[in-house]
Specification:
Elements: H1 7-10, H2 29-35, E1 56-58, E2 61-63, H3 65-76, H4 86-109, H5 116-129, H6 134-143, H7 148-168, H8 177-189, E3 194-204, H9 210-225, H10 230-237, E4 248-252, H11 259-266, E5 273-279, E6 282-293, E7 303-311, H12 319-334, H13 342-348, E8 352-360, H14 369-374, E9 384-386, E10 390-400, H15 410-436, E11 439-441
Antiparallel strand pairs: 1-2, 1-11, 3-4, 3-6, 5-6, 7-8, 7-10, 9-10
Helix pairs in contact: 3-4, 4-7, 5-7, 8-15
Keywords: Chaperone, Isomerase, Periplasm, Rotamase, Signal
GO molecular function, one term: isomerase activity
InterPro entries: OMP_Chaperone_SurA, PPIase_dom_sf, PPIase_PpiC, SurA_N, Trigger_fact/SurA_dom_sf
Length: about 450
């Protein structure tokens, strides 16, 4: 799979309305009778309600059905969309291709076009970051039903848009030193308070389509619980402004959120998904990515020296035999008090020892982290595992606690404010390009 993972490609797939359904023709009974149309009438051409030819001519540039299907193939490589969401995805991709076309045309009109050599260089760089040559990525794209041309079109639009923003937007964004100082002062005042890093998927609803939107939200949650990538689904379906960032709100204080969201988030643990729940204007799905204390070192950045002591079970072992082996193992490791004794005790009970120095606490499975935080050097975690995977403990042999990083710097805060303002003006700029365009839909 391409490491690029199409995250940049999917960034434009935001604000998709889930409640929309394909247009359908409904023959009225009275009209059918008057026209003598048989009840079992069927069209002579192949009919597939999930496929529509959606093409447009944007200021003279044609967007074809092939363009849409190849871009859809890229999306499907990252997200397993259920059939009922495929048509909505096609229509959003269609709108995204229109925006890309406008971006490329605007750069050319302002005499700063993106050259084929620049596109090819970026394409080769993406392939290299994925450990392959450009020819290998060509084959991978074709194998998934897309094409190199589809990805290169995306690259060209991105480069063109960066060029337009750097000339027409970024130079006119100003952030004063006073603004940055105010933010820094506010952060200092909030030191010791909790922040939540949340991912959101927001679906707008009206009284007329409320139930349809809720059902779509439930289907999304079902896919997420099966392991679908939250950021991909947020880019594809969320109607919040955070969709372009994969639904990531960043670290926020709960009091800055709407009351309904804050109430739910307060009870969540990192890695937990909640929703859909109703908020004014629609439905919300929340995912708690992380949680931290402002201005304080994150304990998960502690560097640990660990020894893993483990036992395995032969195929066909009975529960009684396994239970006796686990009891022997538990008793032996419970009596350990020095890391230097681990290998000796392990040899006595036919266990294996693996040493890992320099392991960051946050890299370990989340359920183990609280137990390791409470350990003193020389102590072990409770046994964990299964007959199939083996049973093991972790022994703490050393810990280097993290130091406070001093918080965000003046330059980091200024850059963040500038980026936020550029992003907002970029949305207005793209809206102006759409309003000025001549688009013919077929």
């Amino acid at each position: 799979m391409i490491e690029f993972r199409f995250s940049r490609l999917l960034a434009g797939l935001a604000a998709l309305t889930l409640s929309g359904t394909p247009l359908a023709l409904h023959a009225q009974t009275a009209a059918s009778s008057a026209l003598d149309i048989p009840e079992d009438a069927s069209l002579l051409q192949e009919s597939d309600p999930n496929v529509r030819t959606a093409t447009a001519v944007v200021n003279g540039t044609v967007i074809t059905r092939t363009d849409i299907e190849q871009r859809l193939a890229l999306l499907l490589a990252s997200a397993n969309l259920p059939p009922e969401q495929m048509q909505a995805a096609r229509m959003r991709i269609f709108r995204n291709l229109i925006d890309e076309t406008l971006q490329i045309q605007a750069a050319e009109a302002q005499e700063m076009p993106v050259t084929d050599q620049e596109v090819e260089a970026r394409y080769v760089d993406i392939a290299r970051r994925n450990g392959q040559e450009a020819a290998g990525m060509d084959e991978a794209l074709r194998a998934m039903g897309s094409s190199p041309a589809s990805l290169k079109r995306q690259i060209r639009a991105e480069l063109a848009w960066q060029r337009l923003l750097s000339r027409n937007v970024a130079p006119f964004v100003n952030v004063s030193a006073e603004e940055v100082k105010e933010v820094l002062a506010r952060l200092e005042a909030d030191r010791g308070k909790e922040e939540y890093r949340l991912g959101e998927i927001y679906l707008a609803a009206t009284p007329a389509n409320r139930e349809a939107v809720r059902q779509n939200a439930l289907r999304i949650v079902e896919q997420l619980r099966r392991g679908a990538d939250f950021s991909v689904y947020a880019r594809q379906f969320s109607e919040a402004t955070t969709a372009a960032n994969g639904g990531d709100l960043g670290f926020v204080r709960l009091e800055t959120l709407p009351a309904e969201m804050a109430t739910v988030a307060r009870e969540m643990q990192p890695g937990q998904l909640v929703g859909p729940f109703e908020i004014p204007g629609g439905f919300e799905i929340l995912y708690l990515i992380d949680k931290r204390t402002i201005g304080m070192p994150d304990p998960r950045n502690a560097i640990l020296s660990l020894k893993q002591i483990s036992i395995t079970f032969p195929p066909g072992v009975s529960e009684a035999q396994a239970g006796a082996r686990v009891e022997q193992f538990t008793t032996a490791v419970r009596n350990l008090s020095r890391c230097d004794d681990a290998e000796r005790v392990a040899a006595e009970i036919d266990a294996e020892v693996v040493t890992n120095n320099g392991m960051r606490l946050g890299q370990l499975p989340e359920p183990l982290q609280p137990a390791l935080l409470e350990l003193q050097v020389g102590q072990t975690t409770p046994p964990f595992g299964s007959i199939e995977e083996g049973v093991r403990v972790l022994m703490l042999c050393g810990r280097q606690d993290p130091q406070a990083d001093g918080g965000p710097t003046f330059d980091r805060i200024m850059a963040q404010i500038e980026d936020d303002r550029i992003a907002k003006r970029a949305q207005s700029y793209l809206r102006d390009l759409r309003n000025d365009a001549y688009i013919e839909y077929n």
